[in-house]
């Protein structure tokens, strides 16, 4: 592939990420949680079960040391619990707490009301957005595997996606 195309892809994806991250960060500042911490809460809620730190890392695309740094403040705030897996004592299980669910609902309600979250896409048709998602998914299939599609299609119960 042409080097200029590779460079443009890198710069575009990076810029899109930072546009989204800025907006997401502003929402999190209201509750003193980072975008990554919000994502941990989403992963726990959308999976409807406890996850191991390794699973959180795989789903969130983080190194294990990053997961450890993300979980610590969430646990200290009482938003998650980290317990020893009774059937496999060498492993931990992470669950969202009732306080975590309350915060998660507040965050979802803000996002739902935000017309321009994760960023302004009003100038794009639904078909253009679907095409963008399809192209991105094809790249992710190569790098993350087809199992990663469940992260992108995860739904939160009682959220009203219409």
List the helices and strands and how they pair.
Elements: H1 3-29, H2 35-47, H3 53-60, H4 64-76, E1 80-84, E2 92-96, H5 98-113, H6 126-144, H7 149-152
Antiparallel strand pairs: 1-2
Brief synopsis:
With 162 residues, the chain is mainly alpha-helical. It has helices at 3-29, 35-47, 53-60, 64-76, 98-113, 126-144, 149-152, and strands at residues 80-84, 92-96.
Please give a handful of descriptors for the protein shown:
globular; 162 residues; 7 helices; Arc Repressor Mutant, subunit A; two-stranded antiparallel ribbon; single chain; mainly alpha; 2 strands
Can you describe what's shown?
By secondary structure, the chain is mostly helical. It is built from 7 helices and 2 strands; from the N terminus they run ααααββααα. The chain has helices at 3-29, 35-47, 53-60, 64-76, 98-113, 126-144, 149-152, and strands at residues 80-84, 92-96. Strands 1-2 form a two-stranded antiparallel sheet. Helix 2 packs across helix 5.
**How many individual helices?**
7
- Which CATH class applies here? Mainly Alpha
Largest β-sheet summary = 2 strands, antiparallel
What is the radius of gyration computed over CA atoms, rounded to a whole number of angstroms? Answer: 17 Å
* CATH level-two architecture: Orthogonal Bundle
Separation of the first and last Cα atoms: 39 Å
**Helix and strand sequence:** HHHHEEHHH
Number of domains: 1
Strands of the widest sheet, in order across it, are 1-2
* CATH-level-4 superfamily name: Winged helix-like DNA-binding domain superfamily/Winged helix DNA-binding domain
**Share of residues in strands:** 5-15%
What global shape is seen?
Answer: globular
Low-confidence stretches: none
CATH topology, by name, is: Arc Repressor Mutant, subunit A
Mean pLDDT: 91
Helix content: 55-70%
Structural class assignment: mainly alpha
